[in-house]
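User: Hey, quick favor. My workstation is busy. Could you predict this chain's structure for me?
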Amino acid sequence: MSYQPPYTITPAIVSLIVEIIGRYTLLAEQRLTPHLRRASRIRTIQASLAIENNTLSVEQVTAVIEGKHVLGHPREIQEVRNAFAAYEAMAGWDISAEKDLLAAHDLLMRGLVDETGCYRSGGVGIFRGEQLVHMAPPANRVPKLMTDLLKWLKNTQEHPLVASCIFHYEFEFIHPFADGNGRMGRLWQTLILRHWRPLLAYLPVETVVHARQEAYYRVLAIADKQADSTPFILFMLSALRDALGEAVATGQPTDQATDQATDQVTDQVGALIRVIGNGELKSNELMQALGLSHRATFRNNYLNPALENNWIERTQPDAPRSPTQRYRLSGKAQRWLLNHVGK
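Assistant: No problem, here it is.
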């Protein structure tokens, strides 16, 4: 009997599919220049890696891809190079071919882990801090589970929008690789969507997922507990809808509109703004809330850009090195936050 993932097509899912198709139609009518496609891909790569705690900014990712010297951790730079190579190669991959899935993992994780291009040989658990939130199936079951999942993907009659979300969830549940499962799941969902509508290869939905990272992990846990991917389908379809809405709203026909939309707040500064909220926090408190341990990275990518562009302000401006120094949002940051609540 063929494997059938557990899920339910609800009215809310149907409604989201209709919205997505409508927004995609609007986007397809606009002129997506090669420059904009490249900019969207860079944002996709930066956000997908940021979910995995890569601290490089959009500007730094752009510089790495352009072959420029970048001051950053060598591993993070390698992650960017690998991800760009993988996204550029996706056009030649079959969504249901195991050899292509393994080749993608090899390309994405080369030089970062020992086991690349092959399924994991040991057990693996997913932790949030010190708490185990998911224990993946034993390694000896992975090949069969992946064969069943890829066969389902090849033969399913579900709409590609739904199928891509189901595959993403099932892939994360199996956790077939020793490392890189999160970025592989997002990459393969993009590949599935690309096979349906090629323009979706350049939709930076990862930026929406990154902005809702806590909700992303929370809904994965809910789906695990229910043994049903329906909650995750709803989450990812909502992210796709909103990413399309942002792409349409920025007025994609011109490069200037996109530049204005993406250059106002970097993802790092945006994360900092959200962490501060209505409070006043010390630098070490900010680093802890952002999950950062490298002080230079925090200052170069988060704190200093936010201060220089007046997104945050010191509570003791006349004593910048005070041990009791705290940071709060400026007026324009508060307005920005109000406009981006839930996004």
